[in-house]
Automatic annotation (TrEMBL):
Domain Nudix hydrolase: 8-141
A Pfam family of this chain: WHD_NrtR
Top-level division of the source organism's lineage: Bacteria
Protein name as annotated: ADP-ribose pyrophosphatase YjhB (NUDIX family)
Alphabetized PROSITE patterns for the sequence: NUDIX
């Protein structure tokens, strides 16, 4: 096959911004880079796109290698192509962000990469332009969560309204009124109330809920303005 003449070849990589929620903090899954440049420094999980892969296939493969997971919520974020972003070789990176439940999947993490969950409030310095990727992913997450119920992807199968509120407050770094938050959540019709309660947090306890998966799929694009003006919360 004839190639385009007089064109410089470039590498194409995938970087995955993997968010998780531990019940209190929104966290990021990061690894210690195993090769130069920046060997031993904190990095997002990534890899190069193979000749027979599309971007989504490569992102799914990389996510599975690190977490053992398939079929999780994942979305393409942005393409990062600054000529000097990787000092080793000209590399373009397609960044994806993913949402997973820490509690269910923390035991499936690969030991090879020394991966750790670190709170977004305490992130160490990340290599290259990875901090920019994380910042952009946070902004996208806040925007998407305001109009679509994607934050349920971060929760265990059973959860309480207070736990859900803590998650929203962690994502938006703000405090919501308890009564208004509960009313708005229940008005979506997405939750199924359970008979049992979570009693570790208080004597009275809070009822558990489950997500109605059928309604979740049907109403995904009708979940509008759940958080008003997400970019200007105080």
């Amino acid at each position: 096959m004839t190639r385009y003449s007089r064109q410089t070849r470039m590498l194409v990589a995938i970087d995955c911004i993997i968010f998780g929620f531990d019940g209190q903090d929104l966290k990021l899954l990061v690894i210690k880079r195993g090769f130069e440049p920046e060997k031993g420094k904190w990095s997002l999980m990534g890899g190069f796109v193979q000749p027979d892969e599309g971007f989504e296939q490569a992102a799914s493969r990389i996510l599975k290698v690190l977490t053992g997971l398939e079929g999780v919520y994942m979305e393409q974020l942005f393409a990062f192509g600054n000529p000097g972003r990787d000092p080793m070789e000209r590399t373009i990176s397609a960044a994806y962000f993913a949402l997973i439940d820490i509690n269910d999947y923390k035991q499936q993490l690969s030991d090879e990469y020394r991966a750790e969950w670190i709170s977004l409030k305490k992130l160490p310095r990340l290599i290259f332009d990875h901090a920019e990727m994380v910042s952009m992913a946070q902004a996208r997450l806040r925007y998407k969560a305001a109009i679509h119920p994607i934050l349920f992807e971060l929760l265990p199968q059973k959860f309480t309204i207070p736990q859900l509120q803590i998650l929203y407050e962690a994502v938006y770094d703000t405090v919501f009124d308890k009564r208004n938050f509960s009313r708005k959540v229940l008005s979506t019709g997405l939750l199924i109330k359970q008979k049992d309660k979570e009693r570790a947090s208080s004597k009275r306890g809070a009822f558990y809920y489950k997500l109605d998966k059928r309604k979740y799929s049907a109403k995904f694009h009708a979940f509008l303005n759940f958080v008003a003006d997400p970019g200007n919360l105080k």
